Amino acid sequence: MEFIINPSLLKEELGLLTPVIERKATIPVLSKIKMETNVQGELALTATDLDVTMCSLQITDVLQTGSILVEGKKLYDISRELPNEPIHFALN
To answer: Any idea which architecture 2-90 has in CATH?
Structure first.
């Protein structure tokens, strides 16, 4: 998976999703956000606490499709500190 996204857009979308993720981590996967790219150039971000599920779909510059689960709160905290330059995500 590889894509490029504007950091302010990423921060905004993660800000909408982080209230949904499980904070107590009774089930560890519920503290994660799923990031998935597709051939249409879309980035789908999904978070759930098993009662509520939220999904955000954004057009990005997708270089390679794929998906990964990431720590939602940690990624949001990092996104808030990034300079306003395009972010290049790559998963090997």
So the answer is: Roll (3.10)
